[in-house]
Amino acid sequence: MREAVSGKVLSTSKPWQGPKLTEEQADEQHGALAVPQIALISGRDREYFAVWARGEARRDELHEYKEVVGVAFYPADASGKDLAPAGAGNAEAPDGEFDRPSVLPGPGGLVVTSYGGDSILVTVDGKVSDTGDAKVSLNGESTDPDYLMSFQSAKGLVTNGDDRFGSDGGCQSTRVAPPGVEAVLKQESVGSGMTETPNGRIVGAAGNYVIANWLTADDGLSAVHDLSTGAVRATAPCRTTDTEYAIRVQGPRSGAGVKPALSPNDRFLVRGAMSSTCGPARAPAPTTARTPRRSPSRPSGTTAPPTGSRGRNLP
């Protein structure tokens, strides 16, 4: 661990042994090597770095190998040498293999999901909970969590439903719409008459914040919400003005690979590309939204180039 500004070494850990490579990962021609990933678990009293990697493991010699996501958590404020993880665990695929898995960090830990309906939570103390069969109650309706957008807050899982978002039994999208945005969209057609559809969709998260896109009469709106309460912290238009800098930057191959990030002092939240549902087909300039200042500093973080549209400061 290094201090972000000076580069001073704050701590070092013992070597972490990730899970064994699967046959597919071991085949260099396939290109699916098990490169460990790092995610910051913030939004808690104490922050952690999560190191995780995909592979396979078995409980003992009497069990078959299953695909897993191995995770280890290290306190961000730790000091010293040869540190052991504060917690570690394996999110094991219930059926032996994950179908298009996603690993999603949140204040409550890492959520491992898959297209097949798997949902496994690994908390910072290493506890593993299989929540694949659990339903989420959003606006009074039971629904399956969104396997691409599910984040564990201190108060429960925050996710998208069929046409709404919120947390299980907590904040609901119909009650946290930004100022001037309709929480429920009304549309009238000859065939079905008047229909009502909840507005808002989660498109990313960072730290203790979640980003949602909202449909408006213009180009749409992106809003930064508190992950636990749903309170709006900042807003920014979905469409941005191209600059010379933006023209020279190659757009990402996939919007799903662009992860939002917080600046070291939590004043700015950056999302590198807009959703295609409320912006142009080509990737616009990075957008920056201001979030409330937080006093404790963090050892590392991500900042954005000084381009794009600046979000509106909110009290």
Topology, pairings included?
Elements: E1 11-13, H1 23-26, E2 37-41, E3 48-57, E4 66-75, E5 80-83, E6 87-92, E7 102-106, E8 109-113, E9 119-122, E10 128-130, E11 136-138, E12 141-143, E13 150-153, E14 156-160, E15 165-167, E16 184-189, E17 193-198, E18 201-206, E19 209-214, E20 221-226, E21 232-237, H2 244-248, E22 261-262, E23 268-271, E24 287-290, E25 312-313
Parallel strand pairs: 1-5
Antiparallel strand pairs: 2-3, 3-4, 4-6, 7-8, 8-9, 9-10, 11-12, 13-14, 14-15, 16-17, 18-19, 19-20, 20-21, 21-25, 22-23, 23-24
Entry summary:
By secondary structure, the chain is an all-beta fold. 3% of the residues lie in helices and 38% in strands. It has helices spanning 23-26, 244-248; strands spanning 11-13, 37-41, 48-57, 66-75, 80-83, 87-92, 102-106, 109-113, 119-122, 128-130, 136-138, 141-143, 150-153, 156-160, 165-167, 184-189, 193-198, 201-206, 209-214, 221-226, 232-237, 261-262, 268-271, 287-290, 312-313.
Q: Describe it for me?
A:
It is a single chain. The protein has 315 residues and is mostly beta strands. Helices cover 3% and strands 38% of the residues. It is globular, with a radius of gyration of 20 Å.
What descriptors fit this protein?
single chain; 315 residues; mainly beta; five-stranded antiparallel β-sheet; 2 helices; 38% strand; globular; disordered C terminus
